[in-house]
Design a protein that fits this description.
Blueprint: H1 2-8, E1 12-19, E2 25-32, H2 35-44, E3 48-54, H3 69-84, H4 89-98, H5 103-117, H6 122-127, H7 135-147, H8 150-204, H9 213-249, H10 251-262, H11 267-288, H12 293-301, H13 307-321, H14 326-333, H15 338-350, H16 353-408
Antiparallel strand pairs: 1-2, 1-3
């Protein structure tokens, strides 16, 4: 039954022309499994269709867009808004799904809708798509379904997804600018070494005089680049691919990288604050949903975004399971700031742990934002100095022999 409905929801787009009850000519597009269904739907809307035809597909077919975490965050907010407005769940899926611009996301939403229509619990329907809905998401939805407060939990999930995506965006912003500028500097330097400096070499060969040592060094580097550029390109590509593969497949290597990242000046501080913000936001959301603390810590471990913090949270889970307080186990790990431990202690004592952790998350999310802005301001002059130094050194190396010749004359 569910499979049939899922197939039915794989809609095509039909172009139609018709008249309304007043005789006014209208035209438009409508998603439907077939032309007959499209005609029936138009009549239901008070339109008498005169022409219904399937919309032709592009010659090479549309490129299937990827479903991004941002798409999931927007979907969460739309569904939460619909549920808060009293729209039935299945109808909410229909409205959100048919209105989505990303065909892949529309297909995913309508597939979940078909499962829910067939009697599957929403949490189970979402769990069939672990690539987009992680264990944390499904656990929160399940808690909302069991407690009869799905609309409230969906709102919390939407807020959580928006906050975590915001943090990820700030981290990417902190790393993207310096990396992109350094790549541009390397490309510009390579172009100069490959195409500009060989022209100077032909000029210098007519001088008949000894060249400065610095100029000879740059010419040697240029000769090497001209002869072995392909090997350098392959080597860089293989290195990047190897590091990426190791990071994905080797937990030890990933832990090494995560630990090293936390110790990089300035950037390491941002990574620490981002991990604490994710920890606090995730645990606050789960605890507010009524998820038991030990079970919540299990899900929080994977949401911190850093293996060092993930292992620390799992160790805390084991200690909490034996009866230790959360603030004591946090203090034992030695990586959580003093203010976070104290706020957690106050939350435990007052019975408002979710509220206190929410305040911690708000504080550290703002700290990450400020740190990213400060990093950009700090890096701009440093990057200009590095680029100027690299390009300036090459120019000086090429003009030294000319200055030397001018002095001799």
């Amino acid at each position: 039954m569910a499979a049939t409905k899922e197939k039915k929801d794989q809609s095509d787009i039909f172009i139609w022309e018709g008249k309304d009850k007043s005789g006014k000519k209208l035209k438009g597009e409508i998603p439907a499994p077939n032309a007959a269904f499209a005609r029936a739907e138009l009549r239901r809307q008070g339109i008498n269709p005169t022409k219904v035809s399937k919309k032709p597909k592009p010659l090479f077919g549309p490129k299937k867009k990827k479903i991004t975490p941002k798409d999931i965050a927007i979907f969460s907010r739309q569904l939460a808004t619909m549920m808060a407005a009293g729209v039935p769940l299945v109808q909410a899926f229909e409205i959100v799904g048919q209105g989505h611009e990303n065909p892949s996301m529309r297909e995913l939403i309508l597939s979940i809708k078909a499962d829910v229509e067939g009697g599957t619990a929403l949490a189970d329907a979402l769990a069939k798509h672990p690539l987009y809905f992680d264990e944390l998401f499904c656990n929160l939805v399940e808690a909302g379904e069991h407690a009869g407060v799905l609309d409230t939990l969906l709102d919390k999930i939407a807020t959580y997804k928006e906050k975590t995506e915001s943090i990820k965006g700030k981290i990417k912003k902190a790393l993207f600018y310096p990396v992109s500028v350094i790549i541009v500097a390397i490309v510009v330097t390579a172009v100069i070494l490959l195409f500009v400096i060989p022209q100077f070499k032909a000029l210098f060969s007519s001088f008949g005089a000894d060249l400065p040592a610095f100029t000879l060094l740059v010419l040697s580097i240029s000769d090497f680049m001209v002869e072995w550029w392909w090997a350098l390109g392959l080597g860089i590509g293989a290195t990047i691919y190897g590091i990426k593969s190791l990071f994905q497949r080797s937990p030890k290597f990933r832990e090494l990288v995560d630990r090293a990242t936390l110790h990089i000046p300035v950037i390491g501080i941002i990574m620490h604050k981002a991990a604490v913000a994710r920890f606090a936001r995730t645990l606050s959301t789960m605890f507010a949903a009524g998820v038991p603390l030990v079970e919540a810590l299990e899900s929080v471990a994977g949401a911190t975004g850093n293996i060092v913090y993930s292992k620390a949270v799992l160790a805390m889970r084991d200690e909490v399971a034996t009866g230790q307080s959360l603030q004591f186990t946090m203090k034992q790990q030695g990586i959580f700031p003093h203010i976070v431990v104290q706020m957690t202690a106050i939350g435990e004592e007052s019975g408002a742990l979710d509220t206190m952790l929410g305040k911690v998350a708000d504080f550290y999310e703002e700290e990450v934002d400020n740190a990213v802005d400060a990093l950009s301001s700090l890096l701009e002059p440093m990057i200009m100095v590095v680029i100027g130094g690299m390009v300036g050194s090459l120019i000086i190396a090429m003009y030294l022999p000319i200055f030397k010749l001018a002095a001799a004359v």
